[in-house]
Structure to design on (253 residues):
């Protein structure tokens, strides 16, 4: 089994971890079936949209994103292996993360909130940690992650590849009751984005709208939200203060 971030072979992971911690990697991808090549918005069932918090940023190289959730099985937080197909809720939010990834850690309170607020509507959040098991167990206990976790090292990387993604964390897939990947956000997830996507997934589950139109609507709205967030950040005097990460304390001085 490949060991992450240890020895010379782990140097690439170290570089990626540093880049993610610096907030350098933020994109989002919508739809399925096409390899993203730029930051434009493409319509249709294979549509993607790029930009994340930086609408001008290029999309990461990747394989085509599958139409439906891939069948993957990883060790659970409790130990025994568990597959994505074992989760029966109508809507799934599948979040790939690592303990060394700063944007990943910032997302965790939001993911806990989404699960608490949307559980009655049949939404389940699943975290897939691509990291050392002992590190994940320690961090999950420290900050009180209360949603299901699957954990893998090389098999975790293989799971990310099955989603058409490479070494870019975090990313979050939203699936409807037919297990179609309705949206895939690459980069830190924000509350306004998650709420809009979950509303659109609920529409699909209720038989309202077509998947192509819903994907296009999500792509457009996330682009608008990203551009608004970028403008607000640029207009903030002196920049905005960093949000303390879960499990850390805000610096004073």
């Amino acid at each position: 089994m490949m060991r992450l971030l240890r020895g010379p072979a782990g140097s690439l992971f170290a570089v990626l971890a540093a880049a993610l911690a610096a907030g350098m990697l933020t994109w989002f991808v919508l739809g399925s079936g096409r390899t993203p090549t730029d930051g434009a918005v493409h319509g249709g069932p294979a549509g993607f949209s790029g930009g994340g918090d930086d609408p001008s940023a290029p999309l990461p190289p990747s394989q085509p994103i599958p139409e439906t959730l891939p069948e993957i099985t990883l060790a659970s937080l409790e130990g025994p292996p568990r597959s994505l197909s074992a989760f029966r809720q109508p809507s799934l939010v599948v979040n790939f993360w690592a303990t060394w990834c700063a944007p990943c850690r910032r997302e965790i309170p939001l993911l806990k909130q989404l699960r608490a607020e949307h559980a009655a509507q049949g939404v389940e959040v699943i975290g897939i940690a691509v990291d050392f098991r002992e590190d994940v167990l320690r961090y999950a206990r420290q900050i009180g992650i209360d949603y299901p976790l699957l954990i893998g090292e090389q098999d975790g990387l293989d799971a990310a590849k099955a989603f058409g993604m490479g070494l870019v964390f975090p990313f979050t897939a939203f699936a409807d009751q037919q297990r179609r990947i309705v949206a895939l956000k690459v980069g830190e997830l924000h509350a306004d984005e998650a709420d809009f996507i979950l509303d659109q997934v609920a529409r699909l589950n209720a038989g309202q709208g077509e998947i192509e139109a819903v994907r296009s609507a999500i792509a457009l709205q996330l682009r608008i939200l990203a551009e608004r967030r970028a403008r607000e950040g640029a207009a903030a005097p002196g920049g905005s203060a960093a949000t303390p990460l879960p499990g850390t304390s805000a610096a004073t001085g």
User: Anything to note?
Assistant: The radius of gyration is 17 Å.
